[in-house]
């Protein structure tokens, strides 16, 4: 009798749980529908406000207020649903698609901190930014003139100086005035970040740091290490070449053999490749007499002299790859010029604006016509396609699969468009110009902008993650330099110690910006390019008539449907599944990047041999 009762009781429990599970699945379905709708409304309000700021100017107070208010509302909303999200996650119910939607609901992030901690977080991050913005240095030549900001004043001086003492003076002054003053704030930031990670339910701070990358931090670290390893031969040859150039400029005493190069001098050299357009004014090319083609004047010669003409020309390029045609009314209905041109800094770009739950993409354009904005148009139009392709996805899936994924895809298209073969077809480039020398010059310039950044980005993230997870002590300044030297081949120009704090300024003003996704996006760009070029026969490994750097994807109609299918998934699948659709491989790898720069690699090896420059470097002894 007693056991029967127990059985009945157990049965009751069992039935009850199945029922409530069914019910809670229904509840989950309703919850997600609600979240998708509420987020769409809030996001749209925010996008609209930011769009108005772009086309009416940053002084449009109504939009400025609206934008700030809406971000606060979004935070409040995310905060309000957080307990339910936690509960649903614990219940482990719903089908895989619903579980993925749950995982894509934004975290509370810093909002999970107590009000006092949140306020402190705000203060320390603002302090670090202010130190950077407000620090003024005294002029090297006139120590009484003390109004030099890093950007643009000091930057300008450095770009035009070859006085080593002057360059070193600014390097040291800058660190003296910003490093130590920011250290305490940085330590507070680290403490608060650790708390934030814990409050958001992450086992370690680095898991929180890498949360958007779909892999745990150990897997991400392994992936990054594999990138660094594969890049090493190319990086070391390029490093040796740059060190040789620096030695010619500054002499053997400052740039000794077999040692890391001084960071400040190398930064100026490499930084020249990042100056706006007209690279031949700043860079000594492998073949100076060949130089680089002037794309801007080519565009003007072709009559591509306003943004609208450029837009339709680029739209034709996408159509030729089998992407849907953009309707004639798009420009007049959706495009507006950017209001604040900022011509001096040239921070003026084309940009697509997505909305949620409605089929609408706005477009703001920079009215200037030059090489940079020409290639930027390919990236902006790729975004138009991307946003349209996933506009039927629920809000939680109307995103890219990881941050900067869409940048990688967009840059893949602009890379293909920058191929001399395509530019020749467009008649922007004259026929006879595509020589081996021109190709090397182009790869050299691209290489300076690409290959040197990857180790720098790697160190930025590696340093912060190691500090956050307590593998590295903030007071151990020499550990920072060891990472920097090991991976970037650079050392401080003067002796440093653990009494100094040299974490780079970039890290302090954008203290929680994650760089790994930018590395992944760069690697992805070349991987996709190699794959698409190979399946269309535009790149044939070991056939010198079809090298990767000349591959032109225009008119390759099989590309469009593949890309559109991947784009239409938004973030409903992991990036690996999406990569699988496009390339039949699910892992991001360096093959494409290395294949692309192979001719440059060969040139560097030969040139380094001729110049008799040494490869590689010893560990630094400049910090103890
Ligand atoms: C939960 O399931 C029970 C049993 O089937 C049902 O009677 C009840 O109405 C359901 N509740 C909800 C809210 O659907
Ligand atoms: C967000 O929530 C706080 C605290 O509840 C409230 O004071 C504030 O007005 C809310 N902000 C908005 C924009 O709704
Ligand atoms: C998951 O459940 C939702 C809501 O019931 C449904 O719309 C969707 O089609 C389901 N997805 C899969 C893959 O079964
Ligand atoms: C800095 O001060 C000097 C003279 O004191 C002045 O000529 C110069 O224009 C100032 N520079 C800036 C950037 O304010
Ligand atoms: C390229 O052409 C543009 C427009 O004609 C011109 O302004 C620019 O100075 C040229 N650049 C070089 C390096 O000659
Ligand atoms: C931009 O989008 C908003 C919201 O859909 C719309 O009201 C507005 O008219 C659009 N602007 C342009 C220029 O298309
Ligand atoms: C990477 O993504 C972030 C956030 O999505 C964005 O702010 C940043 O500009 C992107 N970086 C690049 C190089 O596109
Ligand atoms: C970091 O180093 C400083 C100075 O050597 C020391 O006082 C502190 O205890 C260290 N912190 C940790 C967490 O090891």
TrEMBL record:
InterPro entries per UniProt: Peptidase_M2
Cofactor(s) required, per the database record: Zn(2+)
EC class: hydrolase
EC code(s) of this entry: 3.4.-.-
Glycosylation sites: 76, 95
Keywords, alphabetical: Carboxypeptidase, Disulfide bond, Glycoprotein, Hydrolase, Metal-binding, Metalloprotease, Protease, Signal, Zinc
Note accompanying the cofactor annotation: Binds 1 zinc ion per subunit.
Pfam families membership: Peptidase_M2
Annotated S-S bridges: 138-146, 348-366, 533-551
Signal peptide range: 1-20
Family statement drawn from the similarity comment of this UniProt entry: Belongs to the peptidase M2 family.
Protein name as catalogued: Angiotensin-converting enzyme
Species whose genome carries this gene: Bactrocera dorsalis (Oriental fruit fly)
Upper lineage: Eukaryota, Metazoa, Ecdysozoa, Arthropoda, Hexapoda
